[in-house]
Amino acid sequence: MRRRxxxxxxxxxxxxxxxxxxxxxxxxxxTVGPGFSIRLLGPNGQAVTQLDPGTYDIVVSDLxxxxxxxxxxxxxxxxxxxxxVGTVTWTVTFRDGRYTYVCDPHAAxxxxxxxxxxxxxxxxxxxxxxxxKLVATVGPRAxxxxxxxxxxxxxxxxxxxxxxxxxxxSKLHNVHLAGAGINRKTKIAGTGxxxxxxRLRKGTLRFYSDAxxxxxxxxxxxx
Length: 223
Ligand SMILES: [Cu+2]
Prior knowledge:
The protein has 223 residues and is mainly beta. It has helices at residues 2-15, 18-22, and strands spanning 27-32, 38-41, 50-51, 54-62, 70-73, 76-79, 86-94, 97-102, 111-116, 132-138, 144-148, 160-168, 176-179, 182-185, 192-200, 203-208, 217-222. The N and C termini lie far apart (72 Å).
């Protein structure tokens, strides 16, 4: 045994610089359980938040049957099973990117993450919900429509905030929107343009003229 080690070391010394031949993968210590805790510590005993890309040995102590340790990110997807209790070592190579470790059944409360190298910027936060625009038109002939801002037909809408531009172009008809959380109308004899800001709820939004509610009518599903 000793002879073999010596031989490997001698070979290593000729093939590599000595420091590289003896270099070991840096070690990280992952622990999950026994309570609702999950950790990944670096050689200094601090939680890992930033690493250089490269190959690491991850020693994972899974201390609970209720929890697992799942490490995921670019090029890496390692997990202990839920029932497993014990210690495993994974040799993984981190490249530039973001990595997360979670207990899968309790991912909301048992999770952590770190970055390796110089990852791409995180995606921007989601924009506030857009107020969508609709256009309701009655007249000048005996027609009523509810369209999107580009004049396209509606095939169902999502519940949410809407600006509805109401174009009443007929002195014989009005626009009446009812259902899905609203009930508003223009005057039959009047004409003009008004804008209503409304919050549409799930249901059926009906639009019709009160002068001819069976002929000038339509509806759209709000889902
Ligand atoms: Cu868990």
